[in-house]
Amino acid sequence: MQQSVDKEFSQVPIIDVSALVSGTGDKYTVATQIGQACRECGFFYIIGHGVDEGLQQRLEHFSRQFFEQDVETKLEIGMNVGGRAWRGYFPVGGELTSGKPDLKEGIYFGAELEENHPLVRANTPMHGRNLFPSSVPQLGKTVLEYMEAMTKLGHRLMAGIALSLELEESYFSDRYTTDPLILFRIFNYPPNPSLSEEKRQWGVGEHTDYGVLTILKQDNAGGLQVRSKSGWVDAPPIPGSFVCNIGDMLDRMTRGLYRSTPHRVLNLSGRDRLSFPFFFDPNFNVEVKPIELEEVMACDDKNERWDKASVHAFRGTYGNYLLSKVSKVFPELRQTVL
Ligand SMILES: O=C(O)CCC(=O)C(=O)O
Ligand SMILES: [Fe+2]
In this protein, which residues make up the domain named Fe2OG dioxygenase (predicted)? Predict the structure, then answer.
């Protein structure tokens, strides 16, 4: 029986997932590699994912065009306009991590849901229509296309994660992600005004992600760092790859066997850094429970987390968990969202 691994990692592993994504080749070998990465690191790069390179270039191009505009134009789609759907633009300093403003601006998107969708009719927070900028008309269509490609990829990776635990491929989709909560963000991290260590500002401070799986596209500026037991490890850009990491809900389901690893961003490149985190999360209304596997039940997660909170202790749905976290990130949205 495999136990929770306490090994340290010195770099984030790279996994070719083409067999898993294309359905031809040995997906079990890929699953074994994913399992090892989730146990040891909580992070892994994927290559061979099949997401169209042209689509990614368009996404990056139109995103840059958006952020180059003045702040008034960007605020035409400000988050206050998005209301409960939790969509739109926030300016630099508008988002907090552990109570401190991040050195980044960004746009929040999610699955595009019509007014008559049951979850929107039920007034469920974080569900609804996107706010797309009329100032860069091509961005909206490109974002929708990208989210569709990433949702497909998310389903395949979750199948791989299920196989890595020797569960049936559909374990997560059957219980949590048939209708996943999809959140997608585009961030622009301005260059750090100061390179001196005391005055540096985090692009995003140390945190873990909330859901099951994050798939991140980053440009070539660099700055993402991942916490290992012996210190911070860089996750530099690798052309053609995405960075994947598992979130709190998979940590919870596996009782800490698969780690939701802290990470942060420091942009010291001297120029803007764009990143595109895509969050593939459990359905808002499901309760996330430990997986009934001997290997999981044998885990007793005694490791103290970065934020001293426990992902195992809370009761309720994924939506409850997410809302409790979000109200800390955007205090002014609390009234609108809760
Ligand atoms: O921008 C990045 O590289 C990471 C962003 C991130 O960690 C997040 O949005 O949760
Ligand atoms: Fe993150």
Answer: 177-282
- SS3 category, 251: helix
Atom of ligand 1 nearest to the CA of 218: 3
DSSP letter string over 269-332?
A: SSS-EEEEEEEEE--TTPBP-----HHHHT----PPPTTS--TTT--SBHHHHHHHHHHHH-GG
244 pLDDT higher than 50? yes
Measured CA to CA in angstroms, residue 25 lies from 15, 22, 36, 249 at distances of 14, 8, 19, 29
Domains of the chain: 14-329 (2.60.120.330)
Q: Are 333 and 86 in contact (CB under 8 A)?
A: yes
Q: What is the pLDDT of residues 100-147, one digit of tens each?
A: 889 999 999 999 999 999 999 998 889 999 999 999 999 999 999 999
Q: Ligand 1, residue 187: give the atom nearest the CA.
A: 1
Q: Which residues, at least 6 apart from 300, have a Cβ–Cβ distance to it below 8 Å?
A: 255, 256
pLDDT digits (tens, 9 = 90+) for 184-227: 999 999 998 877 787 889 999 999 999 999 999 999 999 999 99
Ligand 1 site, residue 277, Cβ cutoff 6 A: yes
Phi, psi values for residue 127, rounded to 5°: -125, 140
Q: Is 263 in the pocket of ligand 1 (CB under 6 A)?
A: yes
Q: Is 218 in the pocket of ligand 1 (CB under 6 A)?
A: yes
**pLDDT at 311 > cutoff 70:** yes
Which residue has tokens 């199948």? 159
